[in-house]
Design goal:
It is a single chain. Helices cover 39% and strands 13% of the residues. The longest helix is centred in the C-terminal third of the chain and has 14 residues. It is built from 8 helices and 5 strands. The termini are far apart. It is α/β, with parallel strands linked by helices and 179 residues long. It has one domain: Rossmann fold, CATH 3.40.50. The chain has a 5-stranded parallel beta sheet with strand order 2-1-3-4-5, sandwiched between helices. The chain is globular.
Length: 179
């Protein structure tokens, strides 16, 4: 008598991806709403997120945890983001960690300075969930993090960008269909 075949031995892509260690993202942002927004977007993409409200606690987390990517605001209450970026990029233990700067400073000169200092990307607030998610995933892919390779991203609502990124969410497959 034969036993019925099951799909236990053939996991789908999502289950297989969960076996890979999730990337850990450190979000250093002093504004609580923005910090929580960024964390929620990344958690929905199955990243592990650590939040820090200032530069000092962010650097402490960097020393204590294994961080794969830093999301960094430039305007922080205790130290500016450029000082943190400089410290990360000049420290032998952290210099290979990609840093994505996200800031309200939209000036081209600030962007060029930040990228010259070693930032992997420069995002201007307000930003959409889709842009944040895509940028983090792309940077992790470029740096060879296994958790980002081939992992499907959520489809984010287009009105998310119009609302400045706050309050958007994933679109269900049924909602994507056109009548």
């Amino acid at each position: 008598m034969s036993t019925p075949q099951t799909r236990v031995n053939t996991p789908d892509r999502r289950v297989a991806a969960k076996r890979v260690k999730a990337a850990t993202v450190l979000v250093i942002e002093d504004e609580e709403d923005i910090r929580n927004f960024a964390a929620r977007v990344l958690e929905l993409e199955d990243y592990d997120v650590i939040k820090a409200a200032d530069a000092s606690s962010g650097m402490q987390m960097l020393k204590e945890k294994s961080i794969d990517l830093v999301l960094l605001d430039l305007r922080l209450p205790d130290l500016d983001g450029w000082s943190i970026l400089r410290e990360i990029k000049h420290h032998p233990d952290y210099s290979r960690i990609p840093v994505i700067v996200f800031t309200a400073l939209a000036e081209a000169m600030q962007r060029r300075k930040t990228l010259r200092m070693g930032a992997a990307s420069y995002l201007i607030k307000p930003l959409s969930a889709r842009l944040l998610s895509q940028t983090v995933t792309n940077i992790l892919r470029e740096t060879g993090h296994r958790a980002a390779a081939g992992y499907p991203q959520r489809a984010w609502k287009t009105e998310d960008a119009r609302r400045g990124g706050i309050g958007g969410g994933p679109v269900s497959p049924a909602a994507k269909r056109t009548p």
